[in-house]
């Protein structure tokens, strides 16, 4: 079905990286490279990390945190026996623990998103590279067709010139025949 590739082309293909080899192979086999690669279902921990990161980096979280801190301070200022008097050591401890737990969870979510983005960028690269190869191949085919049409046109013009030359020779022999 397909003929073997010339040796110089094979040695050039051997110099490519794995992604480029996969792209060339799909081009040669005329396979699609663009596929729907949805992320695999997230684990429970990954879903929790995504939700914590989503909520922890939002305005509602900031407003809620500022409101909770303000309520904490207001309660401790207005109560006769505050459970966390100024300088609010317990509040600092709660905020520090929240930040210490929230930061790695957000990092997990960002790492997962970063891995997903790298995979999407790799897929985009593959699709774009294959599209570039296809465009070059189409240009080559168009150039071959144009060259073929030019050759046909030149051949047709040569035939027309030969026909006109014969017609001109007949015309001249008819006007300058043996009797002239």
Mean pLDDT: 87
SSE string, helices as H and strands as E: HHHHH
Helix content: over 70%
How does the major sheet shape up?
none
How much of the sequence lies in strands comes to: under 5%
Number of helices: 5
Termini separation: 68 Å
Structural class: mainly alpha
Radius of gyration: 39 Å
Name the assembly state: single chain
**Got a strand count?**
0
**Integer count of domains:** 2
Would you identify the regions where 5 or more consecutive residues have pLDDT less than 50? none
Overall geometry comes to rod-shaped
Verbal overview:
This protein has helices at 7-14, 18-28, 44-56, 59-78, 89-175. The mean pLDDT is 87. The radius of gyration is 39 Å and the shape is rod-shaped. The chain is built from five helices and no strands. The longest helix is centred in the last third of the chain and has 87 residues, at 89-175. Helix 2 crosses helix 5. By secondary structure, it is mainly alpha-helical. It has two domains: 1-32, no CATH class; 40-175.
In terms of topology, how is this protein built?
Elements: H1 7-14, H2 18-28, H3 44-56, H4 59-78, H5 89-175
List keywords for this structure.
single chain; 180 residues; mainly alpha; 2 domains; rod-shaped
Characterize this entry briefly.
This protein has 180 residues and is mainly α.
């Amino acid at each position: 079905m397909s003929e073997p590739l010339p040796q110089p082309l094979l040695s050039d293909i051997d110099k490519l990286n794995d992604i480029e080899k996969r792209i060339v192979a799909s081009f040669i086999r005329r396979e699609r490279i663009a596929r729907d690669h949805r992320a695999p279902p997230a684990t429970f921990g990954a879903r929790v990390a995504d939700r914590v990161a989503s909520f922890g980096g939002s305005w509602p979280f900031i407003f809620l945190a500022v409101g909770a801190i303000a309520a904490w301070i207001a309660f401790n200022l207005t109560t006769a026996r505050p459970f966390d008097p100024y300088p609010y050591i317990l509040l600092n401890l709660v905020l520090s623990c929240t930040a210490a737990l929230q930061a790695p969870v957000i990092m997990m979510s960002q790492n997962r998103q970063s891995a997903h983005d790298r995979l999407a960028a790799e897929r985009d690269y593959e699709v774009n590279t294959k599209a570039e190869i296809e465009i070059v191949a189409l240009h080559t085919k168009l150039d071959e067709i144009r060259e073929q049409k030019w050759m046909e046109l030149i051949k047709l013009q040569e035939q027309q010139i030969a026909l006109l030359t014969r017609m001109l020779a007949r015309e001249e022999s008819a006007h300058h025949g043996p009797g002239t």
